[in-house]
Amino acid sequence: MNKILLLLFMLITGVASAQLTAASYSVKSLDVNSKYSDFGTTFYGKDKIVFSSSRQTGSSNKKRDANDRLYLDLYIGNVGDDGEITKVKPFSSNVNSKYHDAMVAFSPDLKHVYFTSNNYLDGKLKSEGLKIFKATVSANGQWKNIVTLPFNSDKYDTGQPSISEDGKKLYFVSNMPGGYGDTDLYVVTINEGHYGAPKNLGPTINSKYKEYTPFVDGNVLYFSSNKPGGQGGLDIYMTKLDGSIPEPINLGKPMNSRGDDISFIIDNEKQKGYFSSNRRGGKGDDDIYSFIQVTINPICDQTIEGVIQDKISGFPIPNAFATLYDSKGKKIRRLETLADGKFFFNLECGENYKITGGRIGYYEVENSLNTNKINGYVNEIVLALDEKEFITKNGKEMLNIKPIKFELNKAVLLENSKNHLAKVVRLMNKFPSMVIEFGAHTDARAPDGYNLQLSRKRAAETVRYLIVMGVDYRRITGKGYGETQLVNKCSNGVKCTEIEHQQNRRTEFVVIKK
Asked: pTM for the whole thing?
């Protein structure tokens, strides 16, 4: 890599043995390369690429820097199915200044762009240093409202911006004081145009050597480094941002060479991407290469965001259980749902799983899942449970109906209980010869006579409601038992917990005839 590019990458100019092996890649040199420097690709949407180049597209008197190198401009081209970049043209005349412009990153909505350029003010070069600038992208593609970022400084370089998928974090390279090496990787938070303090990504990622060109794919960070142990020059590495990988993984050959290999980017849906290299056999000082990821990234992660819900009503089911199994049927994890019925699992890419959902009173359901190769992919799953029609409880066969509830000390049905009674009507229609008895029970904490009278009124009101809803009066009876059929020890004068009293305070639809 030539001197000016070293400057551009904030290069003022260990052996790391990874237990994991990188994926396999196939690499291709592109026709778009010129005899000049072409490098630093970034996606512009899904079908275009922006890159940096010192190629001459106009006058042969294009300005040169103090080292007699042609200044870099930004170019844009279309992405072909074969990886080629076609229909290349200068990106924007109001962005390509008379100094170095390179290494860009776009916000997810493509309305904002961050780019690296020389430290100049009012069109005048202040120094050969580098800064990150932000611009707004207009509807016609022009960049306007160009501003310098608040963490830039005349005392050190910043550059090579990369934006997280959610647009909330900006990763970049700098040789600011306090780092671990010549240039380190940093991150700042983005909050509606405001920026947090730069945070060094730490010694697991940064070394005493030079780290460059960050690119974030989900929770995986790709970057380049010239630390010992690589193929030579700058090599491309990957690691996890959460620090769970003790040593960054070298991508190996053919991604890395004896030259400088930088600016890795990947479209994780297509498993295709680009990188730049000055390896032997190229057309220019630096060339752009396309690649296809052939095998699965060994640190590729995905998640399941699931919900367990009632098959008929669609309502979420709390206190249900979701269980994850591997391809051999071994249980990995079991989770209980809360009120929203949701559950979450972490997965590996390219694996086969089975997920089951169940709850007392419901038939268990299972779902198979074959994860793809996309890092950070969210698998959304709905487990719809079919509620059992009959259960056996306390030695009796009953309809599987949630408890019927009433206003306090009254025989007035609560609205949500009417939804439960709708299931009774469905079952009575499904089994036209079935005869049932509704039983209302209380605990023993009120006078016996009061409990008996209240339970009888509630039983009568429930039967009346079902008849109004169309149930044949000859097929349903109601009876109030008060506290005469307790299911535990909690009779008069016995001290019990609220849960134990609740067991006695119940409603039952007992099957008299199927």
From this structure: 0.73
